[in-house]
Automatic annotation (TrEMBL):
Keywords: 4Fe-4S, Iron, Iron-sulfur, Metal-binding, S-adenosyl-L-methionine
Organism expressing this protein natively: Aminomonas paucivorans DSM 12260
Cofactor: [4Fe-4S] cluster
Protein name: Radical SAM domain protein
One GO MF term attached to the UniProt entry: 4 iron, 4 sulfur cluster binding
Domain Radical SAM core: 56-274
CDD domains: Radical_SAM (cd01335)
Gene3D superfamilies: 1.20.58.2180, Aldolase class I, Nitrogenase molybdenum iron protein domain
Keyword Nuclease: no
UniProt xrefs under InterPro entries: Aldolase_TIM (IPR013785), AmmeMemoSam_rS (IPR027596), Organic_radical-activating (IPR034457), rSAM (IPR007197), rSAM_sf (IPR058240)
Length: 598
């Protein structure tokens, strides 16, 4: 690509010799655009194809996820900010892999393809094109998840090497694309049509913000015009970074939208909504459940099972209707499971958890955060982090370790001592309780149970409750959807819901009524959302959630003033007032207005 225009994406930056485009990822040298960090990967790990996410392409297949850093756009509330804006592309945490080495790793790890996801392949266009070409040459599939803002010329050079694409729409308005640094949706729709016409398997994802049902209805109509077989993945908006919390629709609102869309577009799926049945595939003719899926972290799904007659087939075993699926894999692959922080967007949550540890220590420059990330991404650092963030008793030690790492030992001692003091106060308050009330912890909808080993359930026990989740045995990330009878057998006296992906008390009670859940918690209306996001996982603010749990489980013994406690925490560790109106779903940033030092 030559001339003065970059020519990779539709931002069409004018780049002089020696200069860079708006994304900072390419420069012009010798009259030609080149990548600044070619063939350098932050992630190269096997994932299920449902993590891309793709639902109709070889269900159950395992592909090698590759991710670099950066993005050509800058969208408000981006879930991948740690990856696309804050990680340094020159960091030693990234490793160099040639296209041949990437494909060799895919083969050695039993993958049937290579998928670029989490950050956009437009951030590493030449690198991805070479990898895709090599993968196809060696008989593997190649594809990506992308915002789709390729120039016509760039896509023409990439398309012959693609098998599958998840194309993500930001919306349909000019305003939403300009807010991201783009121009309009027109190039994305042009590329959608070109990909489909070129024989690439395409699935479309689109963000659903509160009150924006009309946009999704129009997207569904547009897709039917291209092909009624293209799946539409509705991504319920989760507000991160500087996004307003008011933009997040409830799960029930999103379910109502998707149910309505399915009347005309049968292959509509709902993401970011733990416990929803709207991730399942139903036969559009007879209504039989063909593929059953569950929530598997933000933007991800998990294949649970399929109708037996579908193994390797593309027709409904009930009525014989033909289905728009690329041939599925053997269930040996469908049973593959990623590690807790490995693969897909949970990796970005791990990076944000590290930020969440450092910001209360007064860390304001991203360079110190990157140094901490480099430590975590070395050896078994991610596994160790996952273990330590699950146990309240080990968390103060984690704070001290990271404080020493970034040169803030005094601040770390203060935060660790605060956490230990509040835990001691809770222990003292509930020590004389005659019994431990049974408590169940959900995420999103009432039937999605968090794994017993997670921090939330350990907080329940520290607060003087019995975590019934610990009686459950299942494999999931971060949990799994239960049958109503299973929850009824547990008969919890209290029902708590995650402060990360949550629902109102009224919605949870309706969920239970509709699902046939009949337990003490619902009879007594002892159903407890947290007072604020981030109060039970992902940041040291879990200590505030612990106080809330104690108040709910033992109101006769624990009466912590949550507003005063939150105010003290924010003033001591964030240097600002606690204001619920400024909060969103971010783990790390204490409020929407928080910024790194320039």
């Amino acid at each position: 690509m030559s001339g003065t225009t970059c020519g990779i994406c539709e931002r069409n930056c004018a780049v002089p010799e020696g200069g860079e485009g708006a994304c900072g990822l390419y420069r012009r040298r010798g009259g030609v655009m080149e990548e600044r960090y070619p063939h350098r990967y932050l992630v190269a790990t096997p994932v299920s194809v449902e993590t891309v996410p793709l639902l109709h392409y070889r269900p159950g297949a395992v592909v090698l996820q590759i991710s670099t850093t950066g993005c050509n756009l800058c969208c408000p509330g981006c879930i991948s900010t740690t990856l696309v804006r804050e990680m340094d592309g020159a960091s030693p945490a990234l490793r160099h892999l040639s296209p041949e080495e990437v494909v060799r790793e895919a083969r050695n790890r039993g993958c049937s393809g290579v998928a670029f996801l989490m950050n956009d392949p437009l951030a590493s266009f030449f690198t991805f094109r070479e990898v895709a070409k090599e993968a196809r040459r060696q008989g593997l599939a190649a594809g990506c998840a992308t915002n789709g803002t390729f120039t016509r010329e760039a896509l023409e050079t990439l398309l012959p090497h693609l098998d599958f694409v998840n194309l993500g729409l930001k919306g349909l308005s000019q305003e939403v694309y300009r807010a991201c640094g783009g121009s309009s949706v027109a190039p994305v729709l042009r590329n959608l049509r070109a990909l489909h016409a070129g024989g690439v398997h395409v699935e479309v994802s689109c963000i659903f913000r509160k009150g924006d049902e009309k946009t999704l209805e129009e997207v569904a109509r547009l897709l039917r015009g291209v092909s009624p077989s293209i799946p539409l993945q509705v991504m319920r908006f989760l507000p991160f970074e500087d996004a307003e919390a008011s933009l997040e629709p409830s799960i029930r609102e999103a379910e109502a939208l998707c149910a309505a869309l399915r009347r005309d577009s049968p292959f509509v799926y709902l993401f970011n909504s733990p416990g929803t049945p709207l991730l399942h595939t139903l036969c559009p003719v007879c209504g039989r459940v063909l593929y059953r899926r569950d929530f598997y972290g933000p933007m991800g799904a998990r294949l649970m099972d399929a109708a037996p007659s579908l193994s390797g087939a593309r027709a409904c075993g009930g009525c014989g209707a033909e289905l728009p699926f690329t041939k599925g894999e053997a269930f040996r692959e469908a049973e593959f499971r990623e590690g807790d922080f490995l693969g897909g967007y949970p990796f970005t949550r791990a990076l944000e958890m590290v930020e969440a540890l450092l910001i209360p220590l007064g860390v304001r420059d991203r360079g110190r955060v990157v140094r901490a990330w480099e430590e975590v991404l070395t050896g078994d650092g991610l596994m160790r982090l996952h273990r330590e963030v699950q146990r309240p008793e080990s968390y103060p030690g984690l704070v001290r370790r990271f404080g020493a790492l970034v040169g803030a030992p005094r601040e770390a001692r203060e935060l660790a001592s605060y956490l230990e003091d509040r835990m001691d106060r809770v222990r003292l308050a509930v020590a004389s309780a005659p019994r431990r009330p049974r408590a169940y912890y959900a995420m999103g909808k009432a039937l999605f149970a968090l794994k017993g080993e997670r921090l939330e359930n350990n907080l329940v026990e520290l607060a003087g409750g019995e975590s019934v989740n610990k009686r459950l045995a299942f494999d999931g990330r971060p949990g799994a959807t239960l049958e109503a009878r299973t929850l009824n057998d547990l008969n919890p006296e209290h029902l708590f819901v995650s402060a990360f992906i949550s629902s109102s008390r009224e919605d949870l009670l309706r969920d239970c009524q509709e699902a046939g859940v009949r337990v003490e918690a619902t009879r007594r209306r002892q159903v407890h959302p947290h007072p604020a996001p981030g109060w039970d996982f992902g940041s040291p603010r879990w200590i505030l959630g612990l106080l809330h749990l104690a108040n709910c489980l033992h109101p006769d013994r624990a009466s912590f003033d949550l507003t005063s406690e939150a105010q003290e925490f924010y003033e001591r560790f964030y240097g600002r007032e606690f204001s619920p109106s400024g909060l969103n779903r971010s783990f790390a940033k204490p409020c929407r207005g928080w910024r790194w030092n320039p």
